[in-house]
Design a protein that fits this description.
Elements: H1 3-6, H2 11-30, E1 47-52, E2 67-77, E3 81-92, E4 97-109, E5 118-122, E6 126-130, E7 135-139, E8 154-157, E9 163-174, E10 179-181, E11 209-217, E12 224-234, E13 237-250, H3 264-268, E14 282-291, E15 306-315, E16 318-335, E17 340-351, E18 354-364, E19 378-384, E20 390-395, E21 400-402, E22 407-411, E23 416-422, E24 425-438, H4 440-447, E25 454-467, E26 474-481, E27 489-490, E28 493-505, E29 509-519, E30 526-539, E31 543-552, E32 555-561, E33 564-576, E34 580-591, E35 596-606, E36 611-621
Antiparallel strand pairs: 1-2, 2-3, 3-4, 4-5, 5-8, 6-7, 7-9, 8-9, 9-11, 10-12, 12-13, 13-14, 14-15, 15-16, 16-17, 17-18, 18-19, 19-20, 21-22, 22-24, 23-24, 24-25, 25-26, 25-27, 27-28, 28-29, 29-30, 30-31, 30-32, 32-33, 33-34, 34-35, 35-36
Length: 629
Amino acid sequence: MTKNQQFSIDKDTQKVLDEANEVFQIIENEQRFIQIIGGQQAVELPVGIRQNITPDSEDSSNKSNSFITLGIFRMEYHPTYTEVDLFAKVELGELNTELMFSATNVRISKSGGIYEEATLNLLTNVPVGRGGGQWLLTFLGGFEPNGEANGQTYITINCEGKVSEISISADVRIAKTVAIPINENGDIKHPNKTEPGSGENVVGNDSYVGAGFSFRTTNINDLLIQLDLPPFELRALPNWGFKMQNAVLDLSDTANANSMDFPELYTAQNLLVPGNENLWRGFYAEEVSVYLPPEFNKNNAEGRVNIGAHNLLLDNFGVSGEFFATNIIGIDEGNANKWQFSLDSLGVDLKVNRFMRAGFKGRIVLPISDSESSGGQLGYSGVISSNQDYFVKVEVQEDVPFNIFRSKAIIFKESYINLEVEDKKFYPEANLSGVMAFDQEQNAELSGSDDDLLTFSGLKFQDFHIQTKQRPYLSIGYAGYLDSIVAPEIAGFEFGVYDISMTTVGDDEARLSMNSYINLDESGIRGDVRLHIFGRLEDGDYLKWKYDSIEVSEVEVDVTRKGFEFNGQLVFFRENAVYGKGFAGELDLYSESLGIEIGARGLFGNTGDYRYWYVDAHGRPTNSDNENL
């Protein structure tokens, strides 16, 4: 809908406007101006009274001045008074706009002058396109269906025919090609009414960004109007919201808001008329709320995160401003698609709808870690490009807790941790390579126990991939054993590794398996054992891979020595008040040279202070004819 269609005027009102224009044309062409409205002298109608309503300005040639011209076009004489009908034309020099008012049956005394005061009402709504057509100012007027003036915009004339009060009601709306309104929670307010050209009436329509305002004055000077703009989102800057409270709508040619400071870019790129900065038109707010994009999400929050900012401009070039905030989202509040994160600082330099500089910093927690353990919070820094692409760098400065297997890991430089944005959500991803370690210190930190069941510092892994887009959220490319100076131990016994695997089982379980052997004594007696460490996914506000359990298989012992051999299975035990921890089980001993076969209860243990073993045996000769043996 065009502006002309939006503000079509009914025939009766148009007829009155045509009459008013004809009256003022006659007055101006024939210079029929008088100083005061008389009640007795006969005059040739129409006549006019002209007044400069811009204070402190006597220069009638100044185009920024505003004037009012009264046009008397009907007089009816009565014994004690004269009744007149008036038009009034207000010329707003700063807006290059004319407003037409009227009043009927105004009484003038015989000695001259209006009885008390006369009120002239604006005949119809008057639209004024501003900002290169990007926003529309409408002065509100007209009449009710019963013919009475609606009293929205009017002027009051005193007994001398001078203006004693100007009351203006107006509405300002920003084009949908520039901005669209959002709710306080950051959602689009009218998702089905975001496109321009809908044919709806603009005035008072909250599917447009704008506001109504009114004020009263005795003169027109420095049109700096205070109003509130409800939350909105710019077309050129999607997902960022702004709310301008106590904003100034600058319609003045002679002044700007007191605290206003234009960005250097405006001068450098000639966005201002040199030496005539006061000609700038637009909205300015010293205090602003900025709604962050929805990917900066808080747990269980109903709306968008917002921060305070200062000195924001909105004009036909776009939005400009700088803002910086700290401690925005805590580590237990931020939710990057179920990864913990914080937003510790955000700094933005926004010029004419483009990010000149936009950076943010915080911390992020891998789902296999926790925020309480040393090394669990990884620092990150990010930038936002002019196209609103995110580039994030994560710094790993110490060993990272792998709660999933109750271990810690050194992360290699070829690892990466990314934050991508898609469908207004962060999608974090990590692909890790490094060396994992199990020791008493980390067991105490991660489990609250001093139980050093497994001491092992040489588990190498590659392509440990964690993501949130689709299940399974975890996959592991490779695990292997890296020889180290310190021999690995289990329950205080040295052990060696045949092979290692790290796999996921279904969507919610991870398993670290070691096919290994244990040295049961210093003479070389050893047994094969398989070790499994299980981690399980907990899916709540956050995704958390946590340690679940450890399984140690029976130790398969099969020993052959000169003159004897024994075999059997040993079962792992620990936390025994007398024996400490170790392995115990049934063994079969056979010696051909001695001619005996023995069953034995064997125990290999470690109290922490020393290692020991003993065997409690029973048996029989293998070459005796005595049936009682």
